[in-house]
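Quick one: examine this chain and its backbone structure tokens and tell me how the chain folds. Here goes:
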Amino acid sequence: MTATYTKLISWLNAITPNDCTVIVSNPSAPQPPPPFVTIKVISNRDIAVNKTGVDDNGIRKATRFTQLTASLQIQGKKDVSLQAETIAQQIMDGLNFPEQMLDYFGRDLAFTRLILSPQTLDKISLNEWDNRVVMDIGFSATREILQDVGVIEIVEVDGTIGTVEISKRIKV
């Protein structure tokens, strides 16, 4: 999952303003000063698996195809009107350029759909304006898994068939 977060954060850093920090959501960690975007993968489900046979080195590959939902919270500065909404729209604009996403995601992560369009959650907290927007974005991803099943190097046959004794060692 670290690789997925790294790709998503790199892409968000490229399409948000320079003074906007992008971080993985962690309620226990200190928040950076606004503006910032937090991202959290809130669901990840397998939709298919493709398995190969074992190669000459004893390696078997499986590719998992998954769908995931990334939840974003955009926090704007208290004294900058509509800043969170503006950043959310920049993210929405970025969803329309798959060529740019390819540069950051490679071939193993792709935008699929907007699940929750930007929703403004502004509020007054301790007599200060809290400028916040949330949105959820759907992605598809692939993950390659390698299993080392090993190879047979030596076959030994030892025993008796009827009255015939067999003892053979074959190096494969």
